[in-house]
């Protein structure tokens, strides 16, 4: 009740954002849980806008809600590279990006995200050239995504990782050790913790958000 009041009366969520969430829940009711929480997305948008970030990478698009929010936080000349594998979902995303007027800021690439990231890394011009990254895709590959974003994010930039609490399963040793998804998330948190290039903290928002800041 308090959460709903906060989101309705104390947040600036556009009608387009709400429509996107509604259509996702209508068409993909069983998968709608894959949508990032609205307060989390507003928080990420706020960070991006306050920092003046212009160039970002998103891994995992689904129906485009998080990309829409990230792009809303970027200036008119900002560019978000969004990676996914499923055009059934991303076709919905493109419709709402157009409605929200952020489609020119978003470049969608479909394919294997690890391969796309490796191709970016192979071009020296891309190294440490992005302001931020957001990971919200297949959990077993989280460590691979984080390690690659480390090469692409500039000093002073951030990497944001969704689902870091994973419905509290992360705290259960049987899951963090034996379940591939939970293990992928846990291992990524430890990569961030032990990487001396980053400061990081975890926020209990949505399903848990880890924010790693690459030291200057």
UniProtKB/TrEMBL annotation:
Keyword annotations: Methyltransferase, S-adenosyl-L-methionine, Transferase
Query: Which Gene Ontology BP terms does the record give?
Result: methylation
Q: Name one Pfam family in it.
A: Methyltransf_3
Q: Where are the transmembrane segments?
A: none
Write down the superkingdom of origin: Eukaryota
Any one Gene Ontology molecular-function term assigned to this protein's record: S-adenosylmethionine-dependent methyltransferase activity
Q: Which InterPro entries does the entry mention?
A: Cation-dep_OMT (IPR050362), SAM-dependent_MTases_sf (IPR029063), SAM_O-MeTrfase (IPR002935)
Q: Which family does it belong to?
A: Belongs to the class I-like SAM-binding methyltransferase superfamily. Cation-dependent O-methyltransferase family.
Official protein name in the record: Sam-dependent methyltransferase
